[in-house]
Amino acid sequence: MTNALTLAKASIAIGLLVLGIKTLAWWITGSVALLSDALESIVNVATAVAALLALRVAAQPADDNHPYGHHKAEYFSAVLEGVLIVIAALLILHSAARGLLNPQPIEAPFTGLGINLIAGAINGWWCFVLIRAGRRLSSPALSADGRHLLSDVVSSLGVTVGVAAAVWTGWLWLDPVLAALVAVNILWSGWQVIRGSVGGLMDESVPTSDLETVRALILSHAEGAIEAHDLRARHAGAATFVEFHLVVPEDMTVLVAHEICDRIEAALKARIDNCTVTIHVEPRHKAKPDEALVI
């Protein structure tokens, strides 16, 4: 978690740097499209701050009021990011509409575009760092921040090409139209971020591939048991929760059944980081052959 917090702090610093560079590019050119790019960077800074706060909360240990930990705080951060992205898109659409009604010439376009490309290159490198770290650390907050930055990079490239085309052709209306396209791209990014976060808040099951891994680990470490059934698994931020029922022979001692449970739990925790396992031991007559994992 320390690594995630460090990355979140760095995101704020980089976001402020990129915001300053993009604002300079807009100030030099007066381009509505470049203004839209700068407005999105304001959201980048806000989401980086939200991610840092969420990671701080998520890092707190379980307590009496939160016995399962504070992991889901990251999902709230990601939802907030999605909402901020949508607000930024609406502001950009407003600016685009004004620019379309009253197109303005673009001043010093290539100087401004060159400056904007520097900001885009910084964002491109940093979004790659965040997406990789988000996957490695199972952090929804960092992943959401990285995906949003990726949409920003795509927008910046589109804006650069479009503004250059507007200058070359003299079609001033291209500038606000590009700003509107940037807004649409941002809206899509915001929807993706909110969609993934809501799934986590609603305790959506882990992906099928992860569930198959859990099943395989149970089967290979449950020697002595009869079957396992009612398997469920979910993510909560960086934590994974696994629970199932384990059927054992009626004459098996509590000690032996406990040893099997310990063996399975150790295998799952060795393979899945920050994993909490709950096993309900049952006698043979509770078996469910039609839906069980036969040991």
UniProtKB/TrEMBL annotation:
Organism, scientific name: Thetidibacter halocola
Biological process per Gene Ontology, one example term: intracellular zinc ion homeostasis
Keyword Metal-binding: no
Membrane topology type: Multi-pass membrane protein
Record GO cellular component, one term: plasma membrane
Residue ranges of every copy of the Cation efflux protein transmembrane domain listed in the record: 9-202
Subcellular location: Cell membrane
Protein name: Protein p34
Transmembrane regions: 12-35, 41-59, 75-96, 108-128, 149-171
NCBIfam families assigned: CDF (TIGR01297)
Pfam family, one: ZT_dimer
Gene3D superfamilies the UniProt entry points to: Cation efflux protein transmembrane domain, Cation efflux protein, cytoplasmic domain
Major localization class: membrane
Residue span, Cation efflux protein cytoplasmic domain: 207-283
PANTHER family given in the database record: MITOCHONDRIAL METAL TRANSPORTER 1-RELATED
Gene Ontology molecular-function annotations: cadmium ion transmembrane transporter activity; ferrous iron transmembrane transporter activity; zinc efflux antiporter activity
Keywords of this entry: Cell membrane, Membrane, Transmembrane, Transmembrane helix, Transport
Signal peptide: none
Top-level taxonomic group: Bacteria
Keyword tRNA-binding applies: no
UniProt similarity note: Belongs to the cation diffusion facilitator (CDF) transporter (TC 2.A.4) family.
